[in-house]
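User: Fold this; tokens only.

Assistant: Input:
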Amino acid sequence: MLGNRWMQRLMNVYQKYAYLMRGRYGRLDQINKALLIIWAVFTIFDHWIPYYIGNIIALAAFLLVICRFCSKKIYPRSNENQKFLLWLNRVKDFFKGKKSPYTYFKCPECKQKMRAPKGRGKIKVTCKNCHTQFVKKV
């Protein structure tokens, strides 16, 4: 009897939470994880950082996580995460000493960014955006 009542209350809270989060981003993606790590580090080390700078940075990181989590703009948040992952991979590759296996270039007509594998020599490229064909050495 008592367990059943608690289960109903728990289900009621879950339904209210689900209603609140409907249509929101609500994902713990890599940017949010990184911001939570920044929050935790600055919260732990704020005693050694002068002028409450640690508290301010920690609070800003946590508020950014909450704003991203509750945002109704799902696709921009997902795009931000993809750009963050690309940047993070470039930083990791820089410290590992790896170079990108691709050559990046732009279409001469529409300036669309494109890439091709390095070491292929001269290749004929067709732009997916404007269908212009040109030869590029990669």
